[in-house]
């Protein structure tokens, strides 16, 4: 289950010669020839394994065809990782940032390569007992609460976001992004947008939030899968309402009985032994020392946010800006997010 790279997908190749020359000129102690592979999972920023002589490195760049100025900011993600080390050890060490798009076609950064287990897809669940699955889930929730307790000012990240008015901005912002990427009329998504706009709670506080916290952004110790050794993919990290961050995680936290397309894409959390969404909220409240008020709102926000992220990716595919075949059916995931949201509203429960 240790994360492995493979052949670079067609259409997502890098200019190896230009990249090699740049790394040799700018990376400390760099030497040798460059070979490039790609980590095949993930739907947003692209991640590559670089072997430069005896060194193993990881490169992150925006997806091909993306034109979303507020996302895919390599410089911002590099800055977050560079400063986060002061207060949180569970992040890869960044090594080099390049803003010159002429090198590989977009800005990118390079970081150390860590070796660990990343749980992706339902297939890995066969190797996990229900007891182990539950303890991994508990560790994941506890670690989210620990991130929210970090002293972000001490890390020099106090200017990363504007916590005042965060809830309202998020609902308005994700709605606008959905409109910009919309390809189909989905009544359930419209209902979700209207309800969230009409039922915004007051701010719950300010914290450093990851904004995309889920199992496949966690790297686990191969010798003890309950130990998180790194949290990956900090591109959307900001200072904001921690319960909104929990809501994103709840949106990703699929349960038995959720739509099959969601289980196929994100269904590891539905494995025997794992926490339910309700238990995630209870565990988070215990770890953070604060009972979460109105978890339904935050769960529905998470579903809307995931729907919009997936819709943006699907829109790029529909417009011919990417040829990744995995994206062809993503509109069904958007519909399923809406379906889950309406069902939760009808039941007045996160499930």
General description of the model:
With 351 residues, the chain is of the alpha+beta class. It is 40% helix and 13% strand. The protein has helices spanning 16-26, 74-84, 130-148, 166-181, 187-198, 242-252, 260-266, 277-288, 295-318, 330-347, and strands spanning 34-38, 46-52, 55-61, 94-98, 108-112, 207-209, 218-221, 224-231, 238-240. The strands form 3 sheets. It has a 5-stranded antiparallel sheet with strand order 1-2-3-5-4, sandwiched between helices. A two-stranded antiparallel ribbon has the order 6-9. α6 (242-252) crosses α9 and α9 runs antiparallel to α10. The protein is globular, with a radius of gyration of 20 Å.
Outline of the structure:
The mean pLDDT is 93.
How many helices in DSSP terms? 10
Low-confidence stretches: none
First-last Cα distance: 30 Å
The whole-angstrom Rg is 20 Å
> Order of SSEs, N→C?
HEEEHEEHHHEEEEHHHHH
How many strand segments? 9
Helical coverage, percent range: 40-55%
How would you write the strand order of the largest sheet? Answer: 1-2-3-5-4
Provide the structure class.
alpha+beta
**What proportion of the residues form beta strands (DSSP E)?**
5-15%
Largest sheet: 5 strands, antiparallel
Overall 3D form: globular
Instruction: Please state the average pLDDT score.
Output: 93
């Amino acid at each position: 289950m240790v994360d492995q790279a493979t052949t670079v997908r067609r259409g997502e190749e890098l200019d190896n010669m230009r990249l090699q020359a740049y790394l040799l000129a700018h990376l400390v102690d760099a030497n040798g020839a460059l070979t490039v592979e790609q980590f095949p999972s993930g739907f947003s920023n692209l991640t590559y394994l670089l072997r430069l002589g005896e060194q193993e490195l990881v490169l992150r760049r925006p997806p091909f065809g993306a034109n979303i100025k507020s996302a895919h900011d390599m410089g911002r993600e590099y800055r977050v990782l560079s400063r986060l080390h002061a207060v949180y050890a569970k992040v890869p060490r960044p090594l080099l940032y390049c803003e010159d798009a002429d090198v590989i076609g977009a800005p990118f950064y390079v970081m150390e390569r860590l070796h660990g287990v990343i749980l992706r897809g339902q297939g890995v669940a066969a190797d996990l007992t229900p007891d182990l699955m539950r303890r991994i889930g508990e560790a994941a929730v506890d670690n989210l609460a620990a991130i929210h307790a970090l002293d972000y000012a001490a890390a020099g990240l106090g200017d990363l976001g504007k916590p005042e008015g965060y809830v309202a901005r998020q609902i308005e912002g994700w709605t606008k992004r959905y409109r910009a990427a919309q390809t189909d009329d989905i009544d359930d998504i419209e209902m979700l947008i209207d309800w969230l706009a009409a039922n915004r709670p007051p701010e719950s506080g300010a914290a450093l939030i990851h904004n995309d916290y889920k199992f496949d952004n966690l790297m686990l110790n191969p010798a003890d899968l309950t130990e998180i050794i790194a949290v990956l993919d900090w591109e959307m990290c900001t200072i904001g309402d921690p319960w909104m961050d929990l809501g994103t995680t709840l949106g990703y936290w699929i349960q038995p009985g959720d739509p099959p397309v969601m289980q196929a894409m994100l269904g590891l959390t539905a494995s025997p032994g794992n926490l339910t969404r309700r238990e995630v909220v209870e565990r988070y409240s215990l770890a953070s020392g604060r009972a979460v008020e109105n978890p339904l709102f935050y769960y529905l926000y998470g579903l809307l946010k995931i729907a919009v992220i997936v819709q943006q990716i699907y829109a790029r595919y529909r417009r011919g800006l990417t040829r990744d075949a995995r994206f062809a059916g993503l509109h069904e995931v958007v519909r399923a997010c809406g379906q889950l949201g309406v069902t939760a509203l009808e039941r007045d429960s996160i499930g």
